[in-house]
Design goal:
Helix content is 9%, strand content 34%. It starts with 5 loop residues before the first helix and ends with a strand.
């Protein structure tokens, strides 16, 4: 054996091809499914399916609305009237609210919707895992354009010689200015419920939150110091974190990390997601350069490209295309061509991407204007129910400097009906942050930072509802690589997997029965991790919690399945169970596929039936995004399932077609590769791929292994494996370091002939039948772990040194040690595309011969 050339065997996934296969799943078999649906509807109308028994509905979370209390004069006035002062918890000193000199009349604050609570998902694992996935998303939201969009842009003009009216900010909060810190070192962000103050270069942020007419202030220590900070939705911060260095090089950085850090919950202060950008892409940028787009955090100041998808407090991807203030997507803006070539906004067009709405800015600056600062012009940003653009258009106040500051800060307030106006700020005030929840002003004094709200000074006057994108051609696709870091909540892990003594929690509530035909209780899991049992002789389905210790639901099956062979195949979306059954009148070699909901008014009834399904055992049905997909026996090289595979579409509890967001899998074999690919569905519907090299034992699968997506981003699978004695089974734990480090042979387990197999769980464990119940086992308890050590091929190319192998065999007595084929696999844990491994047993000094070609 020779050292492999990584370049020659590391065939990367084709993102285009995989995306095409994913798209295929969303469209195939629609006509067949509709015909089947119609047939079932007809049977329902005729009363053929029978009534449905009462059922316990699924538990659903309550919806919460999070109100954005604007940080303005109104809030300060309320605090003073109610309390006489503002109480501040856990803050620096001084932290006093300033008395407003004038309280302007303002409309009621807007509201923002927090992400809705959902039912708890699958159980997480006990380790920290990093998963890197490349996703392609569109920066153009899809909806309709209201008729109120003006046919041509309106000109919104400002002139330094004849400046607009001045508005006087009313401070509502004061924060101590750290000694020896420049004002340029501070950054701000506005979220739906909080105001964030970040000091660049520090690893501490200050979080200011309205609380019963006052303001609470607290500080939070972060894993990494942030810059270019963005807040929300939810209690999550985004921004640039640490630099990235190549392996072995800790001097010259190779890139920058853009990270997500929650400021509430179990992961508070920790990095839960990240992406990497080139080092030189964002060296010097102005305030609020980044903001929210329909798919995640976007670069407002450039092309609107998504740099990191939205995530929740635990790093899980979030579908936050709606901003929550009025139910429309986060806006993304485009700037028209620069007539000067200097990045100067003279008679510039600003447009809301994907709509016909735009504004024309006519800016006449002072003749002594010095130009933009070295970080460039400010960016166009959303505000509360409008759009803002900020400049200083007055004369240069420091001609002795290369980038002297300009006088006269002005703000363009652009309404969503195409109208707009300019206002002027006092010289010592600036806009420091703006988002759909409001626009923040700041003034630096000798020892403090005073904060005010632009929205309380000049309330929005245009329509609150903004136009959204035309459902026409989607804009340019942007490819980003996102690393999601998942850490399991220790309490959840203990309650699901391990007891107080560290042992596995055993499923005490699941009953196991077997009838006279040796048909025993079958198990499956729902998409959110609960356990479902099927007792054919009783004609019943039972739903348990993820531990198997609590019976949550008992569902009687209306149509009798007791007298026909029936197998519980899968539980799909909307808690619908799928069965393969062979009625007496079925054609020879065929079966029927039926869908039975666990919940709703149709619980226990057949809401979908497919006939003439291959029932010979020569094909396998595997779960995919669109439905159960056919993989035929003994397929050749290429990708399984094939692009033209038959798909039996998922249906919901009412028999209507739906789709799954649970992970699914592809196999790539032969010259095309040697891999198992996990396919996760992002919130925007796009596919996220994680590729795992196949171990040698899985190189020639008969059809498709039984695969379960694990909570750490990997997978665990079991399949038939040829061996010296004829055949057996192997269990493979596709660990999350495999995409980088190929195969860890210690993650491959071989099942002894007399060892029982059970149901794989997302926690990486297995439920095995035992007497009148089930037991939860580690993989090493039901199969023999492969040798985790490494061997060395000596220079003579014929001698292998395997230190520790004999000791491992003596200690563990693995089943594979007495099988020549499986023993040979210990030295060739994996093989690349177009490579074969043959193991033979011969007489002589070297009884086991391993040949790799």
């Amino acid at each position: 054996m020779s050292e492999r050339d990584d370049e020659s065997i590391d065939h990367e996934l084709s993102g285009t091809a995989m995306a095409a296969a994913h798209e295929h799943e969303q469209t195939v078999s629609a006509a067949e499914t509709e015909a089947a649906l119609q047939a079932v509807r007809s049977r329902i109308a005729a009363g053929d399916l029978g009534g449905a028994p009462p059922s316990i509905p699924l538990r659903s979370g309550s919806s919460q609305r999070s109100v954005w209390v604007r940080f303005g004069a109104v809030a300060a006035a309320v605090a003073m009237v109610a309390l006489g002062l503002v109480a501040v918890a856990g803050g620096r000193s001084p932290n006093n609210a300033l008395t407003p000199s004038d309280v302007p009349e303002t409309p009621s604050p807007g509201t923002a919707t927090a992400p809705t609570d959902v039912e708890a998902g699958p159980v997480s694992t006990t380790s920290t895992v990093t998963t890197t996935a490349t996703t392609t998303t569109s920066t153009t939201p899809s909806a309709t354009v209201p008729a109120s969009v003006p046919s041509s842009p309106q000109v919104v003009a400002v002139d330094a010689i004849d400046p607009p009216r001045t508005v006087e900010p009313v401070p509502f909060y004061e924060v101590a200015l750290e000694p020896d810190v420049e004002p340029s070192d501070y950054e701000f962000a506005v979220g739906p419920d909080n105001l964030i103050i970040n000091r660049v270069g520090d690893q501490v942020v200050t979080i200011v939150t309205p609380s019963e007419g006052a303001f609470d202030e607290r500080t939070l220590v972060l894993d990494e110091g942030l810059s270019s900070v963005v807040a929300g939705p939810g209690a999550v911060l985004y921004g640039f974190g640490d630099l990235v260095f190549d392996d072995g090089n800790d001097v010259v950085p190779a890139g920058r990390r853009f990270v997500a850090i929650p400021f509430d919950g179990n992961r508070e202060g920790q990095v839960v997601a990240s992406s990497e950008v080139a080092l030189d892409d964002y060296l010097e940028i102005p305030d609020y350069f980044f903001g929210h787009g329909p798919d995640g955090i976007v670069s407002r100041g450039r092309d609107g490209a998504t740099v990191l998808g939205h995530v929740g407090e635990d790093g899980q991807p979030q579908d936050l295309s709606e901003s929550g203030d009025n139910g429309t997507p986060f806006p993304v803006f485009d700037i028209g061509a620069d007539p000067t070539g200097q990045g100067v906004l003279d008679v510039e067009s600003i447009s809301l991407r994907g709509t016909g709405l735009s504004w024309q800015l006519d800016i006449a600056r002072d003749p002594a204007w010095a130009g933009y600062p070295f970080v460039g012009a400010n960016v166009v940003a959303p505000g509360l129910d409008r759009v803002i653009y900020v400049e200083r258009i007055g004369a240069d106040t420091r001609p002795d400097l290369d980038f002297g500051p300009n006088a006269m800060p002005v703000v363009a307030l652009l309404n969503y009906d195409g109208s707009g106006e300019w206002v002027r700020l006092p010289e010592d005030w600036d806009v420091v942050a703006s988002d759909v929840w409001g626009t923040l002003l700041a003034r630096f004094t000798a020892d403090s930072i005073e904060l005010a709200s632009l929205d309380d000074l000049v309330p929005p006057t245009g329509p609150g509802e903004r136009p959204v994108a035309d459902p026409g051609p989607v804009g340019p696709a942007v490819t980003t690589t996102t690393t999601i870091t998942t850490v399991v909540d220790a309490t959840t892990t203990t309650s699901i997997l391990e007891g107080t003594g560290g042992e596995l929690v055993q499923p005490s509530a699941i009953a196991r029965t077997c009838d006279d035909n040796n048909r025993c209780t079958q198990l499956a899991t729902t998409e959110n991790g609960r356990i479902v049992s099927f007792d054919q002789s009783l004609g019943a389905l039972r739903v348990y919690d993820a531990t198997g210790n609590e019976l949550q639901r008992d569902v009687s099956i209306v149509e009798s399945l007791a007298d026909v062979p029936t197998a519980l195949l899968h539980v799909g979306p909307d808690d619908v169970a799928y069965f393969s059954t062979s009625p007496p009148d079925a054609a020879d070699g065929s079966s029927e596929l039926v869908a039975i909901p666990l919940v709703g008014s149709n619980a226990g009834s057949v809401v979908m039936r497919w006939v003439n399904v291959d029932g010979t055992g020569d094909s396998t049905l595997i779960p995919r995004k669109s439905g159960l997909t056919v993989v035929p026996c003994c397929g050749g090289d290429g990708t399984r399932p094939s692009s033209d595979a038959t798909i039996y579409r998922w249906v919901d509890r009412n028999g209507e077609t739906t789709e799954s967001t649970a992970p699914s899998f592809d196999l790539t074999l032969g010259d095309d590769g040697n891999s198992l690919t996990r396919i996760d569905t992002a919130d925007d519907g796009s596919a996220v791929f994680t590729r795992f090299t196949l171990p040698t034992a899985f190189r020639f699968p008969r059809d498709f292994p039984t695969v379960v997506a694990t909570d750490d981003g990997g997978a665990v699978a079991v399949d038939y494996v040829p061996n010296q004695s004829g055949g057996g089974f192997a269990i493979v734990d596709f660990d999350t370091d495999w995409p980088v480090n190929r195969v860890d042979n210690g993650d491959v387990y071989y099942v002894a002939q007399d060892s029982p197999l059970g149901v794989l769980e997302a926690s990486g464990t297995m439920l095995v039948g035992s007497g009148g119940g089930f037991v939860r086992r580690e993989l090493g308890d039901v199969a023999s772990r492969s040798w985790p050590g490494e061997h060395q091929l000596l220079d003579d190319r014929t001698t292998i040194v395997a230190d520790g192998l004999n000791e491992f065999i003596d200690e563990t007595a693995p089943a594979w040690a007495s099988d020549a084929v499986l023993f040979g696999y210990q030295f060739v844990p994996w093989a690349g595309p177009n490579e074969q491994v043959q193991v033979t047993l011969e007489d002589g000094p070297s009884p086991v011969i391993v040949v790799e070609t």
